[in-house]
């Protein structure tokens, strides 16, 4: 637990390191797609102008919600206050959260409008996991998923409250740069593994941080999760990541999301609970973008997030 942390994660029991079976694609889809499956539309592949416009509009709602958060976030707020604000603001945009009451096997319905993950909490933090107020130096990763006119937008960004340590600043910068480098690798005809190669090389080999195993990006569109599963690390043995050799095809719509720990890559959670936290208590950051693969290359539908101030309050 970091010095600034009020103890955001309860004692964890279930290890998550290398739990590939828990990837979104294996949980929520009947199987992993082949390249032929991807082009036929088992994954969300869009080419009609009206569908592209609808996906852009949903992604735009997520970016706008993050813009509003930059002005709202400050020291002293509780997670409940932040989540209530997100619920109200989404309603004002004629959108709604696609996270609240979301279900996966073995879990109770997700209780929050957004994922609010503080300090050592990597992902899936909820407003009920702590009533402690945010303090200066906290890192909060906010993952927002919206449904807007039938389409999903899903993106996450990490913010520091009031100030941040040198290590936290570097961790955040590495997270943003890893997302940028990974997206550049998402060229039509490239294998999904090229995304992971770009991200892992930069985060682990060049920067000395750790990527979480067993969790990653996913297809989306009119539903929140679908194939393909997009790991942030290369497979360590054959069959570990069945989608690795599938191709980025024109029209593929995916949410990609590095989750980076300052310490060990190992994470865990309490059985039946949502928050997933670092085992060693080290800080973690989470960045997620919605990307459409086009004939000209990847188009980041949530590119506006990179323009936001990330030290807030």
Keywords:
5-stranded mixed β-sheet, disordered N terminus, alpha+beta, 6 helices, Creatine Amidinohydrolase, single chain, 17 strands
Tally of structural domains: 1
Stretches with pLDDT under 50, minimum 5 residues: 1-8, 10-41
Query: How many extended strands?
Result: 17
Q: What is the fourth-level CATH superfamily?
A: Creatinase/methionine aminopeptidase superfamily
Share of β-strand residues: 15-25%
Q: In this structure, how is the largest beta sheet organized? A: 5 strands, mixed
CATH architecture: Alpha-Beta Complex
Average pLDDT over all residues:
89
In CATH, the topology is named: Creatine Amidinohydrolase
Termini distance? 23 Å
Helix content: 25-40%
Rg: 18 Å
The oligomerization state is single chain
Shape: globular
The first-level CATH class is given as Alpha Beta
Compressed to H and E, one letter per element, the order equals: EHHHHEEEEEHHEEEEEEEEEEE
Query: Which structural class do the helices and strands define?
Result: alpha+beta
**Count of helical stretches:** 6
Characterization of this structure:
The N terminus is likely disordered. Helix 3 packs across helix 4 and helix 5 packs antiparallel against helix 6. This protein has 6 helices and 17 strands. Strands 2, 3, 5, 6 and 17 form a 5-stranded mixed beta sheet that branches. The protein has a 5-stranded antiparallel beta sheet with strand order 9-8-10-15-16. The chain has 313 residues and is α+β, with helices and mostly antiparallel strands. The chain has one domain: Creatinase/methionine aminopeptidase superfamily (Creatine Amidinohydrolase, Alpha-Beta Complex), CATH 3.90.230.
């Amino acid at each position: 637990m970091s010095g600034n942390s009020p103890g955001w994660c309860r004692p964890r029991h279930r290890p998550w390191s290398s739990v590939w079976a828990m990837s979104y694609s294996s949980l929520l889809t009947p199987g992993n797609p082949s390249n032929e499956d991807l082009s036929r539309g088992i994954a969300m592949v869009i080419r009609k102008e009206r569908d592209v416009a609808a996906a852009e509009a949903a992604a735009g709602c997520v970016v706008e919600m993050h813009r509003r958060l930059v002005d709202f976030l400050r020291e002293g707020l509780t997670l409940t206050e932040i989540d209530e604000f997100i619920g109200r603001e989404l309603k004002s945009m004629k959108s709604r959260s696609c996270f609240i009451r979301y279900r996966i096997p073995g879990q109770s319905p997700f209780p929050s409008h957004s994922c609010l993950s503080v300090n050592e909490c990597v992902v899936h933090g909820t407003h009920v996991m702590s009533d402690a107020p945010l303090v200066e130096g906290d890192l909060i990763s906010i993952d927002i998923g919206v449904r807007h006119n039938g389409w999903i937008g899903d993106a996450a960004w990490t913010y520091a409250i009031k100030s941040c340590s040198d290590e936290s600043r570097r961790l955040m910068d590495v997270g943003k740069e890893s997302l940028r480098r990974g997206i550049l690798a998402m060229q039509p005809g490239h294998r999904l593994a090229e995304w992971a190669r770009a991200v892992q090389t930069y985060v682990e080999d060049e920067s000395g941080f750790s990527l979480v195993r067993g969790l990653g990006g996913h297809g989306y569109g009119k539903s929140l999760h679908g194939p393909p599963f997009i790991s942030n690390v290369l497979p360590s043995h054959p069959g570990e990541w069945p989608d690795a050799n599938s191709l980025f095809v024109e029209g593929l719509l995916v949410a990609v999301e590095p989750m980076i720990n300052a310490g060990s890559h190992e994470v865990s959670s309490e059985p039946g609970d949502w928050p997933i936290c670092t085992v060693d208590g080290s800080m973690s950051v989470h960045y997620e973008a919605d990307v459409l693969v086009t004939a000209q290359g990847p188009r980041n539908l949530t590119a506006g997030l990179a323009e936001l101030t990330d030290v807030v309050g």
